[in-house]
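Entry:
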Amino acid sequence: MLSPIDILKKFYGYSSFRPGQEEIISNTLAGRDSLVLMPTGGGKSLCYQIPALCLPGITIVVSPLIALMNDQVQSLRANGVRAEAIHSNRPEDENDMALELAARGELKMIYISPERLMLDLDRISGRMNVSLIAIDEAHCISQWGHDFRPVYKELKAVKEKFPTVPVMALTATADRLTRSDIASSLGLSDPFCWIGSFDRPNISLSVINDPGKQKRLAAIASLIDEHPLDSGIVYCLSRKKAEDMHKALADMGYRSVCYHAGMLPAERERAQKLFVNGEAQVVCATVAFGMGIDKSNIRWVVHNNIPGNIESYYQEIGRAGRDGMPAQAIMFYNFGDIMTRRGFVDGSGQKEVNGEKLDFMQRYAEATVCRRRILLSYFSEESHSDCGNCDNCRSPREKFDGTILAQKALSAVIRINCVEGIGMVIDILRGLNNSGIIQKRYHQIKTYGAGRDLSSWEWNSYIHQMIQLGLLEIAYEDNFHLRPTPYGMKVVRGQERIELSKYRKPLFPAGKKQKNSQAEVKPAFATPEEELLHILKEVRLDISKEEGVPAFVVFSDATLTDMVEKRPIDIEAFAGVHGIGQVKLTKYNKKFIGAIRKFRGLPATLPSGSSTKETLILFNGGMSVEEIAEIRGIQKATVLSHLAEMTEEGKVTDFDRIISEEDIAKVGKAIDGNPEGAYFRLKEGGMEPGTIRMAQAIINYRKKK
């Protein structure tokens, strides 16, 4: 039996485990229950997939989402693992066949919804040799979790039905209270607990005071332009906002789709498929989208509106950069969204708890210190230094005396009798000559144009700071008009002085794509590495379209990046790229190596002997002759011929895996008796030509020694 590390290399192409994986796997193989908390993209699935391949029976994986099941099964099959999903979107005869295959021991894993598992629990327990049960998104079982689902409570019956089978509960988002509730609700027996770091250092964190619709669109457009072959998500507060954002981006010529709970199931499925397969650059969605999306090349997530709690925010930004490569998380923040969220909280069943969680989310959005430390502290994880990869760390806030600036804004609000919102106040301060100002005669007030030395972005930032400091408040009940507070009136009168944080420019350029522009623009590359990565992504995209699978199922961005660094031009070098298991090595080496060779100015055709070397690499990876023949699509005799050639060169010495000593002796005896007719006599006696060739090679090798 292969060891966990051998399985990791053979099926997944990795040479080492991530933190926690090895400990979790060893405890599981020892038969112990476990509770696993790892961030999205931290490698949770390997924690149960590796034991599944080590253990003799079948592993049942409970998952709440069909999309997640399908993605995981696709990825496993691409790596050469037999797996099936059982869910309501499949014909019932296919579900029955999957259960039958599992009962016959022809599968290693089945993915199943909690509802379906409870329905078929007696059937499964009576017919299957179950070695492990993994419960994904386990926070759904807890009443304290942010996505509580009552059906998960029934899963305690699984432990009762399989008392000796280890159960693994996995989640990416659970605070201290939720963790304890998961273990007790599932009836886990003295579980091994792994609480991995919640830190995702590859994700850049930024919060921007809402600059208005057009500037938000420009910012999102720039992210799409920056990652033309990758994907992003725009989360919106409502279905209407998601539809509006989708239409605006589509009108600009971007490949956008919309996703929310109000759409028909077929429409949602189509949108998700386009996004996962890479045919859509962006999905504009409500929180209904994303849980369980196993897409590794999401390079950015934008929150068009503030989320309701840190757990949801953390889970949603965690959909970016699952491959460990750099990704961006940007939130647009305004007070109107807070009030909308307050309305949701008031109508919830846990007003006090949800209100506290929204308060923390608001404090995060308004923070001027390291945002990552705030996130980690929420999940009870200590952090002793700033992250250096959030907006507050990259551009520490420089303070200045903002009293006069605040007096200008407050004066403008007072002189128009507090009947306008932020946008109009900014236009007045900047002295704009638009119809709204002229019609209302705001151009005649004393503070008109008093702040024309500042941009609208700067005024937007400073007015939001004044709101945060308590100088101004938003009258939500009165069309979101601004009005001064008693503290603000003291500043106007010169009785108080205030400090403001100096404005800093957004971290991204404004997009300039023309509306309805469908023309393909050849990207400009800053370095040869960028150009080669773009070429390899196009190769990956072509393969994904041919095979009808998402691009990340072929290879992750992390694998392509390692490919760029190593630039393999032959089979041996390609096998050394991070994330290339044996099945994918065989399936994809020619196209990727050919592209790299062409980029380096070499003939695209692989050098002679590549086929033989490919067989040797698979053999050294632990595959049998029969497995190599099946994966490569060649005859067993051809595989034996390759191994015979490598044997004569001294590159194969593990003969027991190829041929028995009895057959070697039989061939040796025939050769000694009459060398010229030996081959035909052995063949007539029923020995395969490949076996004869292999035995001859071993005999010759031993004679040389």
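The chain has five domains: 4-195, 203-394, 404-501, 528-607, 617-704.
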